[in-house]
Amino acid sequence: MVSDKPGIRSKHVCVIGAGPSGLVVARELRKEGHSVVVLEQNHDIGGQWLYEPDAEGEDPLGRDPFLKVHSSMYESLRLLSAREIMGFSDFPFLVKRDRDMRRFPGHREVLLYLQDFVEWFGLRELIRFNIRVEHVGMVDYGEFGKDLRWVVKSKEIITKSDDDDEKMVEEVYDAVVVATGHYSHPRMPSIKGMGTWKRKQFHSHIYRVPEPYRNEVVVVVGNSFSGQDISMEIAGVAREVHLSAKSLDITEGLSKVLDKHHNLYLRPQIDSLEEDGTVLFVDGSSVIADTILYCTGYSYSFPFLDTKGIVVVDDDRVGPLYEHTFPPSLAPSLSFVGIPRKIIGFPFFESQAIWIAQLLSGKRTLPPWNEMMQSIKDFYNSVDAAGLPKHNTHDIANFEYCERYGDHVDFPHLEEWRKELCISTLKNLVVNLETFRDSWDEGDEKLLQEAFQSPHFTQLGSQVLTFQSQSERP
């Protein structure tokens, strides 16, 4: 809703994290007239997309509350989404000569895109690098929606090892935006014998290259896309790879992969781990493994945030959050960007950023507290009624929801070509798991031409390099 209060209020705002969501929040806050400081624990922007090849100092199962390594990218990772659909609304993800020109480029190309975004909009001056946020808490808790300020305590990171002698800096802000992402803190299963299993156990958070697994017998736990992708890569060097899945009902694409890689086997869930290295599966079969690699996803974690119990993480449900963004009792002075999953991320983050910036300036207002709480309750009930696990609360997978969200600030709806390219990729992935990034049909060719001629790609006056047609590709 639009505020009827005259004048625009400028706030001093702390944004935690300089990944894609934090960067677009910083831009929108400044555009709205706010004073912005972005605190980033790494030496550069990018968040997850800032690849860190050295993860040796990390706990192999990611059990530390404050992780030393933020990025979970592995060296060979390529995009799951085509680049055309990823760009912010006013900054297309263009193909540039002398860079990775593929439709589904590697992770470094996304980092370069974000660096281009930062330079184009002059955001680097807002960011303090090598700063780890240790504590965020309320200065005083006044009347709902008013007089609420935040103390932020942070340290400069000299090395990746903790240094208790480093001086803590304490600052007070009118508002805090948490933009720390959701692909850093490992989500681990509970398996009988995990604590006493003597051989190597890792979470995919620290997986980088397949070479350490050469000639090994590896059990990969988790049949999500990352589990499949990493299994295919490790199968190129390992003696055997056993992919443990909750369901043995697999896609056509995975079936093709299993037929091709004769040392890659599909297994059911693990029943228990034995001290001699045996992995027992629920169907009674077993293997003696050298390594177990857990591709079991990630949990939301905010170890620095103290809201006196107002915002909690319960089995990966961050709440209560109105529209996955605002805790009703603390909004708009505290907000979260980048919580939703299974969306076209960059445009959605942008709509979140605009809403936050305009709420803080007073240009718009949130509904009353009781209405927001009822909305959250209704949403939780709908999740339960659909039979979805609590940890899938923030999995959106719904274009219509994204568009309704954008309507709060008149953010443009996703273009039809963007939606259709997204759906086309998912269908291709299901059938052609190993090749979908480099082979597509004539329907995509037509959608690409429509995309390149759309205002999204022509708005900057840039020349868009078109891709070779399928028949011309090697």
TrEMBL record:
Its cofactor is FAD. Keywords: FAD, Flavoprotein, Monooxygenase, NADP, Oxidoreductase. It is an enzyme of class 1 (oxidoreductase). Pfam families: FMO-like. It comes from the Eukaryota. Its EC number is 1.-.-.-. GO terms for molecular function: flavin adenine dinucleotide binding; monooxygenase activity; N,N-dimethylaniline monooxygenase activity; NADP binding. InterPro entries: FAD/NAD-bd_sf, Flavin_mOase, Flavin_mOase-like, FMO-like. The keyword Oxidoreductase applies. Belongs to the FMO family. Catalyzes the conversion of methylthioalkyl glucosinolates of any chain length into methylsulfinylalkyl glucosinolates. This is Flavin-containing monooxygenase. It comes from Eucalyptus grandis (Flooded gum). The lineage of its organism: Eukaryota, Viridiplantae, Streptophyta, Embryophyta, Tracheophyta.
